[in-house]
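Repro:
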Amino acid sequence: MRTLRRLTLGTALATLLTAPAAWAARPLVSETADSLARGDCELETALASNRVRGQDNTGSLDTLVACGIGVGTQVSGAYNRSRNGGLTGQTVTLGGKTNLAEVQDGSIGWAIAYGASLDKAPGASWRHGGTRVFGVATKPLTDSLVAHFNLGWLRTESDRSNRTTWSLGVEGDGPVRWAADVFGDDRSRPWASVGLMWPLAEKLSANLEYAQQFERLRVRQWTLGLKFDF
């Protein structure tokens, strides 16, 4: 039972941390008030390691595909596989984002993002894991600096809880793009993350991110990912 509790903890931590990132372009965690153009798609994949002192490490693999379908909307599908103590948990997430107002001439852009997940615990069948809806605001601060704010609602079925989620992030443009975020919910202490993204080819880039949660038992995560536009 102790090992199973550790896996549940590791899987939950991985899900809570990577779920926001599944809506955005890594290394940014906060969602952005824009969407892919119709017919444009992107594929992201990442390996992550979650570390909590005194407990087994949790390794995870994330894969996300998102495509624009027009009318300011994009849809996405994501898969997470987390492993801890020899046991494996899986999550499939379907989501989308719709622009309400574009970012133009320094004005604030607005969007709404939404999604639902299915979870599979070790030895169990697939079941509804959670549902989320949140608003997104994006504001250019300078020609090369943009800020993002997310605020929303998350329902997790494992503990039948409702959470208010939030995120504040900034990103800087340049040959190597950088991002920094603070994010969390009303039931736990916040996370902070920093990351870099650099191009490898015309439509291929790599990213590296470090995140930490400020609970009494510090949770630390390293993520290395690739992104392909097509």
